[in-house]
Design goal:
Length: 339
């Protein structure tokens, strides 16, 4: 059965049927379900090549990630991609993931665009000043930033309130009696790390505590970076009584490093990990206290919806979404040692 025959069976125009099958928002849910049911009943399959030629679209969206970023080993990233893929598949859209050397990201964006491989992008791990976003702006390509940047008023983005989440972590440690709180953070060129550093500073300031620059430890965005930070902090002349890791990648290395030093959690040092310890880590059973964000698969759904909103011409200020994190109690926060 072809589109014309399906149109005759349903008594609907070919345009309405096409838009229903492709998930356009201007088709009612009742009509969409009716069209989908009839298509299944009669074995109708859209001619993908013909449709792409007719509308001038590739029916794919892309994510470019730099090699060495660790994303493909990150359960949260994979869960986000899973949610994104599920939502896009329901609209007959593919998700393409392209690897790139860190210094060649823009060239990869250019090739994908020039060759008509994708219709839009999700830009992950946004930076405060992000050349990828600047490039896509100038090319007027639909994209959604997975995270904010310093200048994001005119773009679609999805993010979590990183500053509020880190301030919440500090508040929980203060409530437990800690005043000597260290932060281990990823490079602050990444916007989430910059925002979480601001939240740490805000949390201390709200309690009337002075800045503690000697307790702020930058680390490589790797588990090794977190491990090395544990050594640096706890082998100092005056170790902190509590540590917050600003992401789960560093957090796994940090906790491993503390345990390898023979330290007990929370008797010797209290720990909170932003995003928590991944469920596939052997350290998950420790019950590390965490700042948690809504599940990553739901974030993927939201990113897909935002990108579709762009293609439908919705105003950008309606396509900026900020979700709030929550505190997840565990077994690694207690009173300061000696208290």
């Amino acid at each position: 059965m072809d589109l014309k025959q399906l149109s005759q069976v349903l008594g609907l125009s070919q345009t309405t049927i096409s838009r229903a099958l492709n998930g356009y928002a201007d088709v009612s849910e009742r009509t969409r379900e009716r069209v989908m049911a009839a298509a299944r009943e009669h074995g109708y399959r859209p001619n993908g090549a013909a449709r792409r030629l007719a509308v001038g679209r590739s029916e794919a969206m892309g994510i470019v990630y730099p090699t060495g970023s660790g994303d493909l080993g990150d359960p949260r990233f994979l869960a986000m991609v899973g949610g994104l893929t599920d939502r896009c598949a329901a609209r007959n859209i593919d998700v393409l993931i392209a690897s790139s050397p860190p210094e060649g990201e823009l060239a990869t964006y250019e090739r994908l665009l020039r060759n008509g491989r994708v219709d839009g992008y999700i830009v992950p791990h946004t930076r405060r000043s992000d050349p990828r976003i600047d490039y896509l702006r100038t090319r007027r390509v639909p994209f959604v930033a997975y995270g904010r940047c310093d200048d994001c008023q005119d773009i679609a983005w999805f993010d979590f309130d990183n500053e509020a989440g880190m301030a919440l972590a500090v508040a929980q440690l203060l409530r437990a009696g800690h005043q000597d709180i260290a932060l281990v953070h990823a490079p602050t060129s990444l916007n989430f790390a910059h925002q979480r550093l601001l939240g740490y500073q805000r949390g201390l300031q709200a309690a009337g505590l002075p800045p503690q620059p000697q307790r702020v430890v930058p680390a490589e965005f790797t588990r090794v970076g977190g491990y090395q930070a544990a050594q640096t902090l706890m082998q100092s002349a005056r170790p902190p009584t509590a540590i917050v890791a600003d992401n789960h990648v560093l957090g796994v290395g940090l906790v491993r490093g503390l345990l390898d030093l023979g330290l007990r959690l929370p008797e010797d040092v209290s720990v909170i990990v932003y995003d928590g310890i991944p469920a596939d880590s052997p350290l998950h059973s420790l019950g590390v206290n965490a700042i948690e964000q809504p599940d990553a698969a739901s974030a993927g759904h939201c990113l897909a919806d935002l990108l579709q909103g762009l293609t439908e011409g919705r105003p950008v200020d309606a396509l900026q979404v900020l979700w709030q994190p929550v505190y997840a109690p565990g077994r690694t926060v207690g009173p300061p040692r000696g208290a």
